[in-house]
Amino acid sequence: MPVGLVALALGGFGIGLTEFLIAGLLPQVAESFSVSEAAAGRLISGYALSVAVGAIALTAATARLPRKQVLVGLVGLFVIGNLLSAVASDYSVMMLGRIVAALCHGSFFGIGSLVARSLVAPEKKSQAVAVMFAGLTVANVLGVPFGALVGERWGWRAAFWAVTGIGVLALAGIAALVPATASPPVSQGLREQFLAFRSAQVWLTLVATALSYGGMFGAFSYIAYTFTEVSGFSSGDVAWLLMVYGVGLVVGNLVGGRAADRDRDRALVWALGGLAVTLTVFGALAGSGSASVVLVFLMGVTGFASVPGMITRVTDHAGGAALAASANVSASNVGNALGAWLGGVGISAGLGYRSPLYAGAGIVVVALGVMVVAARMDRAVVVRS
Q1: How far apart are alpha carbons 171 and 33 in whole angstroms?
Q2: Cα(271)–Cα(143) distance, rounded to whole angstroms?
Q3: C-alpha 322: how far from its chain's center?
Q4: Helix (H), strand (E) at residue 205
Q5: pTM over 0.90
Q6: What gap in Å lies between CA 385 and CA 369, rounded to an integer?
């Protein structure tokens, strides 16, 4: 494995921690700044919205710069944002720190995925992307418990100091270990980057990405309620159950990357089909504690198995445009918001805490349909050529 991929994975790990650890720190942050729980919660939603905006804006602004240089700058922005959060004197500075850190998120994974695939042979490009995203998936496993543990022992600021330190290590690693030859100056200007969006395949992949994320995270957003109100677990069990889900993400990411390098569209169709079936079965068997443990693991596996393939697919059809890769990250965040909203609609309508699982399955079925259409169109083009 190229050492540059390890540095990229470390950067992904740090960024993932920043996104997830705040959930375990909200009570402390709210008390520290004398704000309501709802206001503290906006530190999460504000981050998510900033990811969606920053992914497009920063990638567009840096279109002609060498990719390694851009990655170093993005991780530097991440360090500054977390440093602001660590030393924040009031809520507004804390929110500013969250926004600054979030701005780099989408662009880092978008541009980083292009650099990652350039470090390996073409037939291993999805696996390289999966290695980079392994940092994010591990952060998903550790983020909330890490934040809660550090925050309880040393205070919430210590958690942000720790993430700042990880960011500094990632910055040094990328600067030292990612070869300059892997990131030559990009010849595409902003106009050429936007022209990539004329491709129907780019749009179909972005829609499939948004819907697949929407289905998975629509169910995941309310999974704690499903565990406690339907499966019969205690609130104290939720933490380890979420770690089971996170381990599934790690496995799915790595398996999905390997499968996508063999036959990408087939792997994506199987991953989405598997996720739709898993969510449907989970909804039916959520009353069983043992079944729920198995199914939440499979939910993580099938939910993240499509991620490496989706990223390489959109960038291949976009001619390597970094803006398309970053747009894929924005699409996933839009999908997260859509899925969480639809899952909440079912609960508000009195359909119970199984309903987000069924709603998620329905969204993924639509994603599967989009992916099947995209794959058939691709095969038709190959046949005609």
Answers
A1: 30
A2: 25
A3: 17
A4: helix 200-220
A5: no
A6: 25
